[in-house]
Fold:
Amino acid sequence: MSTAVQPHRHVSAQTERVPGPNFFRVLNSERIKILSLLSTRILLLCAIALMVGFAALQAWGAGQLSQSLRSGGPGPRESVNIAQLLPHLPVAGVTFSQLIIGSLAVLMISGEFTTGMSRATFAAVPTRWPVLTAKAVYTIVIGFVLTYVGGYLGGLVAQPILGNYNGLHLDMASWDVQRFMLLNAAYVAAVALMGLALGGLLRNSAGSIVTLVALQFVLPIIFQLIPGDFFKEARKYLPSNAADAMFQAGSSAPLDTTYLEPWQGALVLAGYVVVLLGAAYTALKQRDV
Amino acid sequence: MIQATDLAKVYGEKTAVDGVTFTVEPGRVTGFLGPNGAGKSTTMRMIMGLDAPTRGTVTVNGAPYIKHRAPLREIGALLEARAVHPGRTAFSHLSALAATHAIPAKRVHEVIEMTGLGAVAKKKVKGFSLGMGQRLGIAAALLGDPQVVVLDEPVNGLDPEGVVWVRNLVKYLASTGRTVFLSSHLMSEMAQTADHLIVIGRGKILADAPIQDVIDSQGKARARVRTDRPEDLSRLLARSGVSIQASEREVLEVSGLDPRTIAQIALDNRVLVYELTPLQASLEEAYMQLTKDEVEYRSDEGATAAHPSGAHAAQPAPAEAQEASR
Ligand SMILES: Nc1ncnc2c1ncn2[C@@H]1O[C@H](COP(=O)(O)OP(=O)(O)OP(=O)(O)O)[C@@H](O)[C@H]1O
Ligand SMILES: [Mg+2]
Structure:
């Protein structure tokens, strides 16, 4: 083993010339980190598979329902408008895929702390914030693109299934389908950012994922079970319900008044992201690595 | 160069580092020695800007770590705990770190070869042995070809070949004018590697001196003397501050007199001496001596607290050791 190290250069000359960390370099470094982990790829594939699977399942369910309605079988004929459900179909899996992407975002940062990689990372980038920002950029890209692509693939798989049933047709280019896909993509990106922030705050993978699940799944149920006007009102401000409000944006159907206005929903959701991420940045700056 | 001034770190109730002041000079290997929990790793994390000091400052090449535009090119560190995601390969780990400083892939390959990781570079770190993990840590430390290298227990887990390699590497780095700061539990390892020694105990500096001075300041001069008239010689050598032990027949162990004086006395009195060997206190002994003082100091804490103004006077041997070395 040789010791191929160049002789010592002068300090001041060195700091002048040589490149140090800047945002684009950190972005590049984080890209290498994300792509070099098998777990990332597995989670991404799971999320896509889940979305496609749910879209197919829902397509089949919608077909069955329409058949039973047509044959005059039992069913709440008036309340179900299948045509109105169809645009939701490609992104039906988002309910669960948001958790996979959220967990991925949690792991992106909690994994640094649990493995000790954070010491190498933050020694290389001692200002620290570019690391979290770079991770946030990839979180947004992954959350958004994956949901859109997963939704599109889901729609493509749903189309032939729907074709088996008379009168059911899913037009992927239609306004409503595109609207839902884009809004859900933004929603998943927001949930993933919340996961990233939680991971940065708690530095613990399981704890952060559990917290995210609690926020997205458990709290809405608890709020619904507790009687009283306060919880009924407060429920509107939970991230998932705020998202439901946001999903009505651009819809031709009359607004559901049990939700906030769409723009309010979007703001509330953004509020969660901003507050959690802000706390994560502060903690990252102040706490020891 | 690393300069710490009144550097302290308190974790809740626990004072891990208690106001240390030292300088690690370039061009030599500085050993950082201390018992478990003495605060070595904590000090090193503060140097690297990972833990914020509770009090005091530490600078690397004249500026706090965080102020450097290209920190990895200024200082590289192998820290005690593994700083690697086990799911990545050695190559992608190093590539990710290199990317932050636009360090070319060529350099990544270079440090991989240098540390002997060539065969496993594309394997996941998960399967690495302790020694391979250490080598990867050293590779990461050298990635930016830094002027200051900090290694926390680098020989931990290395095989004999690896130990020799680290020893030669740090000596080589120092010979090129770099600053090398290395901690170890192995006193014998320090004796063979370090030029200068900083000894820390319970967060305080116990000694900061060239390695030889640390040894000298602790043990008195000792010599083994073989003579056919041990009783006569004992009588002649006896004086205050000198202790003599007869270990075997015709063998004396004399401490408190240097060999030349012993020889002179023997000559003056026509006593035959057929062996006169200076016995050096080993670093190990010196270290035990220092740590013993540190333990005494600990039990003295109550007394010291009772006379806050006397805190400095109450600090025993360590202060002397430091003084003696200047
Ligand atoms: N993050 C932390 N939180 C609380 N206490 C800590 C923390 N890090 C270190 N300590 C405590 O500070 C003291 C110094 O620890 P440190 O790891 O610096 O010692 P060390 O000299 O490196 O020991 P060793 O030789 O065993 O590696 C120990 O008592 C340790 O328990
Ligand atoms: Mg340690």
Observations:
- The interface with chain B takes residues 1-9, 11, 14-15, 18-21, 25-26, 28-30, 32-33, 36-39, 111-112, 115-127, 286, 288-289 of chain A (CB under 8 Å).
- Residues 7-16 of chain A have pLDDT under 50 and may be disordered.
